[in-house]
Task: inverse folding
């Protein structure tokens, strides 16, 4: 294993420090407990009524800290690599950013995250803060997994954070922001595949290995097993293998519109992701489904894993309006 | 080799098609000859006086097509992977986008690119179009290389395209845009390193291999040899090894300001790039050099290569002003 790091134990903290320096105009770092939050909240005195807060294990960058900023997250709590942050981090983030309407916690469905965010919500409530949570599980690959009871939260998280963040920015109440988030959850599905494993710094070797002809179909973002160890195939067939289960699960119909994310797992070049996205769009258009908005790139990664995932959101006109709303974060930026 | 592609011979064309679909609001694709250009040029009837046009071998995405848009490139010509585009492509791009003031061609210093862009400029001149070129060679690692007479063009290209693109957008003349580009060239230097080779689709295996303890220090973006096959070391020392030659070559002095790019080669996670950027900033600030602007991520890549490069531009206040000007491209976007 070769990694650009000093000690494995320091990689998350040092990376957060570098991130905060690079994006000082947008993000501030709190060291202890460790969380990152919108730089403009302290000075403008005009927090959104509702803070949108997320977090989870590191190794999925730019998720979550890359999505902090106007129109998206108020704060993010990074855990160690592939490890849930602790409740003290979420509590600190809530206290630093909650508006007069409270805070909505966006939790990816992994056992540790769910438990720790729940505890943080209770601690915040005990201090008189109004906090609600949504738990996202958009991965159609498996029902339960090694890390989860129920579906795993993966690429749909980015779409949820963008759309709910826009609602919060526009002054929606806690109940309204939560409703928007639940609306996204109802209509978003994902599935991924790996061409290679990922190497956790502290472990020093890939979390699984594949031969030259194998892929892991339905892989999780921590390298959790998917549906099957399958045969490698050409790009168009890889997309078909991801798209089929998603379209079936969503019961997508002719005439509907989607937001489509073709997401890289971290180690796959953009050149290849666009080849995949080409076929994704052709297939959907062929089924009479309009791809109304596109996102292609490394948005929810798994360290250096080679592979990709597809996320589709069946999008209403209101969701498209919130998607198009201005966003100014390190990793997603438009409209301002 | 596992790649998300159909046939290796189709990967560039199919990727461009996917790119054009994903970014249809910003970019249009011309099939034959193959080039991409600003979607707003046809409709707005208000081309910048001077078109900024670049191109080169594919495999370095988002360079160059990712930088097409308002405030940056007017067009980009993708060659096959690691292979120069042909003059017909540049000529097509020039004819499609040149303004009343002509076009400036941004050429990375590789033998094939220089030759083909020169030929294209001659063909355009023969048709009465005013065309000038700049050839960028910002890589301090080696003087000549397997692909180049003189220094190679690498990460500095992004900074040049952004800053010269802003000047063009603001209505500068061809002579003025060229002068701005030459100003960037005078003050920008880069150096990179590889932890792994890159796999060209048509070749099917990595262009070089490194042991678990080796790095290629000074590597080029096609995997060209650098200064030495060196020992792997911790992140801070990797940065020191890149920063030393750059600072020396620029003769950076206390009190000066730079734009700093910590660039991933494609296969290195953001988590690691920010660890590197943290130390880069500390070292520069320790030397009394202010990092006035930051860019961290995969901006000039080498397919799936693991590694990074550092680019520094000694920036004048005028260059910073042009850097901050609005840019709306698939891969770089701010201010609007």
Result:
């Amino acid at each position: 294993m070769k990694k650009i790091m000093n000690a494995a134990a320091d990689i998350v903290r040092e990376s957060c420090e570098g991130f905060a320096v690079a994006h000082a105009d947008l993000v501030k770092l709190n060291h202890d407990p460790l969380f990152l939050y919108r730089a403009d909240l302290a000075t403008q005195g005009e927090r959104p009524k509702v803070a949108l807060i997320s977090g989870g294990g590191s190794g999925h960058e730019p998720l979550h800290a890359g999505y902090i900023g106007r129109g998206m997250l108020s704060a993010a709590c990074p855990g160690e690599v592939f490890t849930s942050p602790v409740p003290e981090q979420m509590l600190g983030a809530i206290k630093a950013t909650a508006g007069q309407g409270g805070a909505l916690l966006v939790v990816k469905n992994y056992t540790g995250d769910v438990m720790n965010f729940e505890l943080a919500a209770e601690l915040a409530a005990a201090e008189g803060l109004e906090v609600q949570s949504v738990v996202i599980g958009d991965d159609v690959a498996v029902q339960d997994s090694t890390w989860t009871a129920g579906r795993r939260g993966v690429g749909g998280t980015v779409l949820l954070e963008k759309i709910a963040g826009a609602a919060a920015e526009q002054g929606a109440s806690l109940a309204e922001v939560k409703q928007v988030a639940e609306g996204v959850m109802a209509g978003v599905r994902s599935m991924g595949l790996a061409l290679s494993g990922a190497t956790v710094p502290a472990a020093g070797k890939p979390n699984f290995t594949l031969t030259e002809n194998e892929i892991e179909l339905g892989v999780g973002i921590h390298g959790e097993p998917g549906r099957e160890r399958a045969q490698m195939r050409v790009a168009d067939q890889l997309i078909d293998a991801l798209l089929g289960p998603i379209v079936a699960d969503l019961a997508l119909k002719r005439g509907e519109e989607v937001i489509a994310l073709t997401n890289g797992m971290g180690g796959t070049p953009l050149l290849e992701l666009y080849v995949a996205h080409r076929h994704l769009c052709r297939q959907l258009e062929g089924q009479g489904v309009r791809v109304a908005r596109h996102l292609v790139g490394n948005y929810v990664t798994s360290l250096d894993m080679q592979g990709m995932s597809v996320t589709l959101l069946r999008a209403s006109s209101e969701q498209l309006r919130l998607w198009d709303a201005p966003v100014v974060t390190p990793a997603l930026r438009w409209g301002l």
Q: What stands out?
A: Residues 270-286 of chain A form the longest helix (17 residues). The mean pLDDT of chain A is 96. The longest strand of chain A covers residues 51-58.
